Please model this.
Amino acid sequence: MCGFIAKHHERLEDPSDIFKILFDSDRLVMFSKEEFNHYDKRPGFNWQSVIDSFYNENMKVLAKNLLKERKG
Model:
């Protein structure tokens, strides 16, 4: 279990469904009001690469919409 948690920031090639949920959830929180500015202020930070890393297509759409809202 510790290995699972330790690697949840890495996008794996053939992960389990539960890993995909954890990974996507962890990425999605980057778009929250609480964390967005932390990442957005980083020089050269690439939001599109974050969006592209999601496993679930619906999460990609949600992230794109949140990005539009935050950048508003």
User: Anything to note?
Assistant: The chain has one domain: 2-71. The radius of gyration is 13 Å. DSSP finds five helices and no strands in the chain.
